[in-house]
Design goal:
Rossmann fold, 26% strand, 4 helices, DUF6506, single chain, alpha/beta
Length: 111
Amino acid sequence: MAFKVLFLAHAPDAEAEKHRCVIETPKYYKLFVVVVKDQEQAIEVCKKVVKEEGIQSILLCPGFTHRDIAEISEAIGENVGVFVARGDGPSNRISMEVMRREGWFSEKGRE
């Protein structure tokens, strides 16, 4: 049986049913990738994919807050690991500058 992982990322213009893919090796690994627009959609996707695909691990992009992570963990139960990809200070600044330049935050009404 393959190790099944769900990776979630945020984008203001995401459509979770459209912006997704699955990558799998012949035997050991199956990675589901979904881009969501907000926390509500993230929780819906997590619940659905855990139930339908038997996900064992969820990896979240750095945009998820501690509260978001706690909500996801509570929503999916204690039998699925929840992890967060985090960068160092310089990496975070680089990413934020690109996102700001591309209008991510203005679309959310934050700038």
